[in-house]
Design brief:
The complex is a heterodimer. By secondary structure, chain A is mostly beta strands. Chain A contains no helices and 11 strands. In chain A, the strands form 2 sheets. In chain A, strands 2, 4, 5, 6, 9, 10 and 11 form a 7-stranded mixed sheet that branches. A 4-stranded antiparallel sheet of chain A has the order 1-3-8-7, with no helix packed on it. Classes of the chains: A mainly beta, B mainly beta.
């Protein structure tokens, strides 16, 4: 299995809703990431998990709450979002090494619309 | 910090060769990567250069010159399906894990 699976593919939520994005990989990767991408822009890093521990939070607002229940799963809990949070949310995973960089494997993303 | 510069768009015809350049400024360097992203799709990993020189993978090649902080992606025998955004990316070495920083992306349009 060489894929990162993200669900749902599309999500429309109101500003008072609570929802969760899910990500799963079975490649044995020990690093998992959440990226946010606006149209015609590059992906922007939000969170990094290494060995199921949060290692990087790029000053993301608390209305985004990540969770890594185990080495294969990564969730992003959403609450009280704003319309400007509408974007493509990408999950990625990678092998981990200090000295060698491997490619990241991205999921197909969740296209989120906040109304 | 990290800074990557690449052209915003490139156009070419089917069968042609196109080169997408990327210059970077980084506080540390663990190699230059390239990703392809079709409209509405996920970025997919194309190549990685840690050392100077050319890496070839089928119709795609990637080149790196660390002394010039410069790399490029070369696409040969262009096909319509190559129309996509191409991102160069470098990794920050400030932590054990680091962060992958993307350039702003080059939109490649291939015309018949």
């Amino acid at each position: 299995d060489t894929e990162v699976t993200q669900t749902p593919k599309h999500l429309v939520m109101g500003m008072t809703n609570k929802k969760s994005l899910k990500c799963e990989q079975h490649m044995g990767h020990r690093a998992m990431y959440w990226y946010k991408q606006k149209a015609k822009k590059p992906p922007e890093l939000m969170f990094v998990y290494s060995y199921e521990k949060l290692s990087i939070n790029e000053s993301v607002p608390s209305r985004f709450s990540p969770e890594c229940p185990n080495s294969s799963l990564l969730n992003l809990h959403l609450h009280a979002l704003q319309p400007e949070d509408s974007a493509l949310y990408l999950c990625a995973s990678s092998q981990e090494s200090r000295t060698v960089v491997y490619g990241y494997t991205f999921g197909s993303g969740t296209r989120l619309t906040v109304v | 910090g990290q800074s990557l510069e690449q052209p915003s768009e490139v156009t070419a015809v089917e069968g042609a060769i196109v080169q997408i350049n990327c210059t970077y400024q980084t506080s540390g360097f663990y190699g230059l990567s390239w990703y392809q992203q079709h409209d509405g799709g996920a970025p997919t990993f194309l190549s990685y250069n840690a050392l100077d020189g050319l890496e070839e993978t089928g119709r795609f090649s990637s080149f790196l010159s660390r002394s010039d902080s410069y790399g490029y992606l070369l696409l040969q025998e262009l096909q319509m399906k190559d129309s996509a955004s191409y991102f160069c990316a470098v990794r920050d070495v400030g932590s054990t894990l680091g962060r992958l920083y993307f350039g702003r992306g080059t939109q490649l349009t291939v015309w018949p």
